[in-house]
Amino acid sequence: MRLKSLKLENFRNYESAEIEFSPGINIFIGDNAMGKTNILEAIYVLALTKSTRSGLDTDLIKLDTNKAIITGEVLHDDVLKQYQIELDKFSKRAYINKSQVKKISEYISNFCVTSFLPNDIEIIKGSPSLRRSTLNIQIGSLYNNYLKYMNEYNSILKIRNEYLKRLNINALSDTKYLDVVNQKMIDVSLKIYYFRFYYLSLINDKIEGIFKRLSGLSGLSISYVNNLGVSVYDEEKIKHTLLSKWKNNFNKELMQGMTLYGLHRDDLVFLLNGKDAKVYASQGQQRLIIIAYKIAELLIFKDIKKEYPVFLLDDVFSEIDIKKRNNIIKYLKSEMQVIITTTDIEDIDKDLVESARVYKIKNGQIKINKGGGRNGRRKGTRKL
Ligand SMILES: Nc1ncnc2c1ncn2[C@@H]1O[C@H](COP(=O)(O)OP(=O)(O)OP(=O)(O)O)[C@@H](O)[C@H]1O
Ligand SMILES: [Mg+2]
Questions:
Q1: Superfamily for 1-112+309-384?
Q2: Type and span of the H or E element at 242
Q3: What is the largest CA-CA distance in the chain?
Q4: Which of 38, 39, 316, 347 to mutate to test the pocket of ligand 1 (most atoms within 8 A of CB)?
Q5: Residue with CA nearest ligand 1 atom 13
Q6: Which runs of consecutive H residues, i.e. helices, occur in the chain?
Q7: Are 7 and 71 in contact (CB under 8 A)?
Q8: Could you report the per-residue pLDDT of 134-186, keeping only the tens digit for each?
Q9: Distance, CA of 148 to chain centre
Q10: At 299, which helix (H) or strand (E)?
Q11: What would the mean pLDDT of 31-43 be, rounded to a whole number?
């Protein structure tokens, strides 16, 4: 999968910008606040329709303007497709080849990216919902059905919560309808659990080795924590435990008008030698853990889809010593399209810069400084 071009209109600090990417390594250099992260964020939004940064969709629209448009041309299996996200103050629309795609779940598994963005450190430090949504995106990019099951689960959850509230207010004793909802919730939960346990087993097969190669340390794993106490996919146990949790906590759920047991409460814990990395790992180690997690995601995608997603790396080499930077670079393969940002080109390995197309960003203006990459180096372009 290759992003061939990107066009931005009124996105963040860009009034208008057009970029042609190299199919290999692309490096964006610029001082702070010039618009480097915004480029990667635009690509991320183009792929997934929303940003990783907290805040509202409307924050993406350039201040004092009304509509942001991100357009990208993506080459996939020798077919060029145009993807587009249009955002105004009231709505967001997604298009493939100029036709609107109504269901977001049908849009987002087409153009796939794996990203390391500044907020990603929050995957370790932040709330469980961020870890769940990261996992959902990862599995969803591989299996389109997964997102449909997640949508189904969320709508059943909403119905169940509303029904619990109604039961409570009206002091109803008839729970027949709740039994039907419970069964539906169990059916879809089993499908989701199957994917989650399977995907995490793939991640755990890879992440320890990757982290060892990056940091020299062994003992990294991810544990799937759920309030059912289930650690492997076991249909009967999941079914049985969910039913008994709901039965035994019926009054509690009724009082709170909320489903307290189920996969919407699950979490991931990054364990370094059996200890929670959130409290145990250093800042640099946390960065490397997330980079290892993202590289595992990238390699699993390649194993299953037989190609790489586009790899976005925002300021990945800062806070990381030279040896570990080089260890990251060893994972960047020639058949991968990589888009990297940096404030300082010195942070990036010279050979990598040599093979890359390099862009300079200043106040939302982008210039090619060196047109390298596998498109061939442009003669006469100035070297850094
Ligand atoms: N909606 C918006 N409208 C206009 N400008 C915005 C908007 N959102 C963000 N900006 C501005 O965009 C500028 C560039 O932000 P960006 O995060 O891309 O910088 P950066 O080059 O990655 O900097 P750093 O090296 O510090 O990470 C910032 O000055 C920010 O205030
Ligand atoms: Mg930035």
A1: P-loop containing nucleotide triphosphate hydrolases (3.40.50.300)
A2: helix 235-248
A3: 81
A4: 38
A5: 33
A6: 36-48, 104-107, 122-125, 128-142, 144-169, 176-215, 235-248, 250-256, 277-280, 283-305, 322-329, 350-354
A7: yes
A8: 999 999 999 989 999 999 999 999 999 999 998 877 766 677 899 999 999 99
A9: 17
A10: helix 283-305
A11: 96
Higher per-residue confidence, 97 vs 369: 97
pLDDT, residue 144, reads 86
pLDDT tier, 373 (very low <50, low <70, confident <90, very high otherwise)? low
Residue 343 CA: nearest ligand 1 atom is 25
Residue of minimum CA distance from atom 3 in ligand 1: 62
- CA 247–ligand 2 middle distance (angstroms): 49
HSE-up (13 A, CA, CB side) for residue 277? 27
CATH class of 123-306: mainly alpha
pLDDT of residue 171: 67
In the chain, where does the domain assigned CATH 3.40.50.300 lie?
1-112+309-384
Location of each CATH 1.20.1050.90 domain in the chain: 123-306
- Rounded distance between C-alpha atoms, residue 61 and residue 75, angstroms: 27
To the question of pTM greater than 0.85 for the whole model, the response is: yes
Go through the chain and tell me how many residues it has: 384
CB 296 within 8 A of CB 134: no
Q: Which two tokens stand for residue 246?
A: 């709901």
Q: Is the pLDDT of residue 101 over 90?
A: yes
Which ligand has an atom closest to residue 32 CA? Answer: 1
